[in-house]
Amino acid sequence: MHRPPPDFEARIYGPQRIVAIVAVLAEDGIAPAQTLAGSGITEDALNSTSTRISYGQAATVFRNAMRLAPDPGAAIRAGERMGLTAYGMYGYGLLSSPTATDLMDFTVKYNRIMGPVAGPAAYTRDEDRVVYTYEVVLCPDPNDALYRFALEFAFAAHLRLGRDLLGPSFAISALYVCFPEPAHADIYRTLFGCPVHFRQPRNELWLEAPCIDLPSRLPDLVTHAMANDICEQYLAELPLSGGTSSVVRRTLIEHMPWRFPTIELMARELSMQSRMLRRKLETEGATYRGILAGVRQMLAIEYLRKTRMTNEEIASRLGYSDAANFRHAFVRWTGRSPRDYRLR
User: Fold this and answer.
1) Going from the N-terminus, what domains does the chain have, and what CATH number goes with each?
2) Confidence class of residue 258 from pLDDT cuts 50, 70 and 90?
3) What b/e readout covers 111-138, taking b as 16+ CB neighbours within 10 angstroms?
């Protein structure tokens, strides 16, 4: 894992991605109320500058879109709607980047403030190529259709943003993705205009020279420095914006990787009574049991994908009494046994 997952219950991000999804499905005859069903978001709220959403709400809307969309390329069409004006101060910082290196550094460092469903976590560069490594936020499982849908959206958004920033000659040279090849893979090659490689160890977006050195349209050192300072402040405040759910999740992931405490022990760790912890989580629409299950699922998938640990070792690390209990839980999460998941 490159970084801990965000708090899924914290409503701290703008609704731009959901606006794009709703608009695309509306073009295909799907009423906004259907796309938003179960998310707690109304159509009117999408038009308010004060609306803030959570990753959990985004996941609900994205899953609705997967189920309702008649077009298998809906996520890509929605990502193509994410023009420069959808990114606020983050977009302003990109637009004013004085150099290509400044642009790439800013892209990776501050994309989290936008609440991306998937985004660049790092990049490498040599004389001829830049490779962005993407992480999917909405779902940890490459075999889950939501994982694929989120990446389709993010790659299309990257292409649109690149063209807004650097001109129509901006192009992606190759895509590498962890998920298996879907039935609509030909759409990728048509819309992205590049080779796409499936079942890869990492999600990568490649750019080739001379595309990587295209000059920014409005470079400005002072404006870029100002945007950098504001985004730095936003980034520092993110961990403080998630409420109790975020604190619990971070504590489970960062401080207790070998033991997952009861809610009573977690409350003691956070210097409060268990009754108060339950109440705080309830007000955020969360439960301790649900947060713990989400952390275990995320870690289990990481261990199966990136290590050679046995089921017994993973079960022990995740706090299960034996491998059988872990296996039952994993089947419940993913519909596959750990062995089948690893083989696929």
Assistant:
1) 76-238 (no CATH), 242-343 (1.10.10.60)
2) low
3) bbbbbbbbbbbebeeeeeebbbbbbbbb
